[in-house]
Structures are given as C-alpha cells and as structure tokens.
Amino acid sequence: MPVSAERRKQFRQIGHNLKPVVMVAEKGLSEGVLEELNRALEDHELIKVKIAINDRESRKAAIEALCKTTKAEVIQEIGKIALIFRAAREPNAKLSNILR
User: Fold this and answer.
1) pTM here?
2) Can you give the pLDDT at residue 98?
3) Cβ atoms of residues 88 and 48 within 8 Å
4) Of 43, 57, 60, 77, which is the most exposed, with the fewest CB atoms less than 10 Å away?
5) With a cut of 70, which residues of the chain have pLDDT below it?
6) 8 Å CB contact between 78 and 15
7) Domain residues of the chain, as ranges?
C-alpha cells in the first residue's frame, strides 16, 4: 500500500533525528544484512539505511533491491542514506519510531 504524501512528510520529519540502523557495503545484500533489515523494520517500522557504494546507479539499484526483498517503501533518499518504511505486523509502542 503506497504511503500518502502527508504521511511521507510526517515520516521525513521523524526520520530527520534517526541514525542509520543498517549499513550495506560494497558486497551488497547478504543474508545477514537482509535478516537484520527485516528485524529492524519489524521492530522500528521506519529506519535509515546507509548504502556505502560510491557509484550512484549501483546505490540506487541496491536500494530498490533492498526494498523489493523486504517489501518496504523508500520514503527519502539523500546521498548514501535511505529512509525506508514497512508497517509492522504487531507494532510495539516501545520500539516503533512511528508510535512514539
């Protein structure tokens, strides 16, 4: 389900103060990275991911692959940082960046 423009704006405001939770290096999306991404998205719903790839097209492809694999949606991309969102099955108010 696509995120509305109003909700996207709220997510960008929340994401401004977040630090990257997961870092993807030159090796790309390994099983460990995907496992950590899924755990972080389930816990926090809205996370920042740092993509440490210098080539702009490769970085964009990595973000698209990451979102397709985790069924998440890109909220914002700035440089090497992507803000992504996926609604949790069972939101936890203590961990979620959305419900705080």
Assistant:
1) 0.91
2) 86
3) no
4) 57
5) 1, 100
6) no
7) 5-85
